[in-house]
Amino acid sequence: MDAKRIIACVAAVAIVFAAAAVTTPGILKDIRLGLDLKGGFEILYRAEPIEEGAELTHDALKEAAISLANRADALGIAEPQVETEGRDRIRVSLAGVENEREVRDIMKKPAELTFRSAYGCESGGFCRIELYGSDFVENSASVVFDELMRPVVSIEVKDKKKFEEVSRRLLGQQLAIYLDDELISAPTVQGVFTDGKATITGQRTMEEAERLKDIINLGSLPLRLTELYTQKVGPTLGQQSLEKTLTGGLIGCALILLFIILYYRLPGAVAAVSLVFYSWVLLALFKWMNVTMTLPGIAAFVLGIGMAVDANVITAERIKEEIRSGKTILSSIKAGSRTSLRTIMDANLTTILAALMMFLIGRGSVRGFAVILIFSILTSIVTNVFFSRLLLSLFARGVGRAVTPRWFGVRPEQIKDIRDSRKQAEKSPVDFVGKSRWMFGTSGLVIIAGLVITLAFGMNYGVDFSAGARVDATLDRPVTEEELRDGLAGLGLPEAVVTVGGEDGRSVSLRFKDHLTHEAELALTDYLDTDNLEVNTVDPTIARELRNRAVVAVLLACLLIVLYVAFRFEWRFSVSGVAALFMTALFVIAAFAILRTEVNVTFIVAVLTIIGYAINDTIVIFDRIRENLRFAKIKQPQDVVDLVNLSTWQTLGRSVNTLLTTLLPAIGILILGSASLRPFSIAIVIGLVVGACGSLLIAAPLWGALRKRTAGRLLPAAEEAGKA
């Protein structure tokens, strides 16, 4: 027994738990919550010039976004998020807003550039507006250099006489430049300008001059903002969503820890410590990066814990195999850790590819989900691969011979003599290739049924994809559907699909086919008279864009995975893996069509997550096939069948266990989580089960079917795959 190694192991565990216990409360307090958790609203604006025929430039869009952020700051809104999207979009997210009506009215009006003087101002300050942004020639402001090579801003006005009168009256006085109510600059009028042109001096840097130029050009091109998409979440509903989702996720994670400790014994206990370390590091990263945590983000974090177990499960299963083959404990740990690393890296990289597609194609909370998923995977590689191995190796070497196979979940009767294990050809007790017909048949029937229902009735698209408005609320009193319809008619609102649910009839869902105006939305909010509500309105333009982006994201994710698997393995693996992915994705879509479950943006996020996870599972099987190919003697088609069955059997334990550990938090979120995450949770649960079955009964057998065509000879690609 090596006391130093045991002390080092115990010290590492103690430091992790102590650091997590001391710092986690502060980290959680500082993590910024999104509007769906804190309450507030998000608006996607389309910006367009007020003057007909004017051009919308990127600088104008950027300055409009800055103006919106300044307005939010002036209204006392903490940490407003304002960003440009594409060529003419601005997304504004404001959490914790109490006076929503006032804020939305102020935010929506065009940015106003004014030149003000103190002429005639009795109270002091710059109270008199001398020039407006529309008085300037469009895009005439530019940065030039004076005789001392200092940057100055050149301007030109439309009305020369007006400019001459203003400059003559204010000669020697300041003419302040304001954007809305923000003072930008206050230059002194140093001459009388008769040709309508002048220069503004006083900029200390080129950046300041460029900023002033952009502001003036924006002022000469005021923008009209049209709401294309809005989401409003009441503070009460946000808090309830946070509590429900965290409760469901934490229960699922607790079950994960209990399961891996009971099943894997010592490696399971090490994995539990690593998961605590993983969660702490990830939360610290979110705080450091100032990530905004949203409801989908919490789901990604909780699911990430389930996926993070996968690395530990792969390693633990490999170690168990080595122990069963007759190797010593230390040799098994070393060999199992080495052989599992390649599989873990390949599996995680394919999931990152799917997440990258979410980030590149998605917007808003979809991007947030992708960021959290990517960092979850990267953090998992560090903590659940290298840190776990360090702890396991330290403890095993420290305890020495006192460590027995039972500590790894291996019974003595399962251990073979290492010499016999090399001589005997292992065979699978289950014919997975034969059972693949059942999977193909079942999947085919579900997909066909889903297609028929889709053709007959269409998909149950949410407002994200079909446009319109959706309102979900919990009222303070029970209501009936007839009462709500009469109330909506009295407000002059368009006809809606009304659903009243809950045990006490207080849960209300309203679905409008038409996009609600700001005034109609406010009238509806007043009528419902509750803070416990969520309102989503989507313009047809945005709905069409979201549908197109969803299709592109799924196709690009599959394409990237095809290329990666073809590069790392060979073309048969690539074709087989993607065929299984498409089967899984189509199965989930068909299931939603049959169940008439709403299809929205979070559903597409779930499909992309499933694609990443399903190929993860498939790669583990492919990696074992590639490994077994090194020693296989393929002389006839049955040899290929035996190879596929054996490889699938050898990885079955890992597949089942990682499916369980990922399902537990997903089921927790489905049962106890927020109602807005229900489509996401349903898709994840169905997709995880179907994806696991697809890896076992579609991907591997399909590779076998392709490989049987060349039975009797190892192709160079297969030989290289065996050596990789």
Q: What's the quick description here?
A:
With about 725 residues, this protein is an alpha+beta fold.
Notes on the protein architecture:
It contains 22 helices and 17 strands. The two termini are 38 Å apart. Helix 13 packs across helix 21 (678-708), helix 19 runs antiparallel to helix 20 (637-672) and helix 20 runs antiparallel to helix 21. Helices cover 62% and strands 13% of the residues. It is elongated, with a radius of gyration of 31 Å. The model is unreliable at 714-724 (pLDDT under 50).
Give the topology.
Layout: H1 3-30, E1 32-33, H2 35-38, E2 40-49, H3 58-74, E3 81-85, E4 89-95, H4 100-108, E5 113-117, E6 128-132, E7 142-145, E8 151-156, H5 160-169, E9 176-179, E10 182-185, E11 197-200, H6 206-219, E12 223-233, H7 235-264, H8 266-288, E13 292-293, H9 295-324, H10 329-361, H11 365-399, H12 418-423, H13 432-457, H14 463-466, E14 468-474, H15 481-490, E15 496-501, E16 507-512, H16 518-528, E17 533-538, H17 540-568, H18 571-595, H19 601-629, H20 637-672, H21 678-708, H22 716-723
Parallel strand pairs: 1-13
Antiparallel strand pairs: 2-4, 2-12, 3-4, 5-6, 5-9, 7-8, 8-11, 9-10, 12-17, 14-16, 14-17, 15-16
Helix pairs in contact: 1-8, 1-11, 3-6, 7-8, 7-9, 7-20, 8-9, 8-11, 9-10, 9-11, 9-20, 10-11, 10-17, 10-19, 13-18, 13-21, 17-18, 17-19, 18-19, 18-21, 19-20, 19-21, 19-22, 20-21
